[in-house]
């Protein structure tokens, strides 16, 4: 009798677990249920007296938090020639989430300001790994003068954009670039359209007054708590994600 009760009880538990897995996997896809399933199979069934059945049935469902460790995998990226130009073999991260939080806000403002004036901007590249930077370096001066770690892109403090007209990236409309550039400068951003070597009108950056030497030393711009209260936590997570991309792309270099 006792054995029958125990097995039907554990069956009930298993059924309850699977139905909650189905719900959870619908919430957080892709969801790999294997390790959680193992967790339940390993769990010894406790000796339970008859009058405690109700309590056991009401046992709390396991809390499964959305996986934040792998958030970097969901960042949008594009492949070479997406915007009509040769940008090398490694994919480019285009997600604004990959940017330093304060700079990210500025870029969102820039895109909104341009949209208000009828200019649609596409992100060509936001954060850039050291491996990707090295790839540009080998592609020549037309691409960059800076080696790995020397571009603001490696700190999430630079972005490359391009205006899109009739679904096509427009790289050579100087008047259009000027409008975009001025909008960025109004937000306190540094605009690559003022440079000559190379002229880089799609490039915007912001360092809060820091130099490249500060950035390579691991110092990030100080942003007042009133502007962005949880900067430290967000940066910590970003650094983790950047590292994950770095590991992935530097593995491509070695191949
Ligand atoms: Zn750039």
UniProtKB/TrEMBL annotation:
Superkingdom assignment: Bacteria
Keyword Signal belongs to the record: yes
Signal peptide range: 1-22
Domain Peptidase M15C stretches: 145-206
InterPro entries per the UniProt record, alphabetical: Peptidase_M15C, Zn_M74/Hedgehog-like
Protein's UniProt keywords contain Cytoplasm: no
Pfam families given in the database record: Peptidase_M15_4 (PF13539)
SUPFAM superfamilies hit by this protein: Hedgehog/DD-peptidase
UniProt keywords, alphabetically: Signal
Protein name stated in the entry: M15 family metallopeptidase
Organism: Chryseolinea lacunae
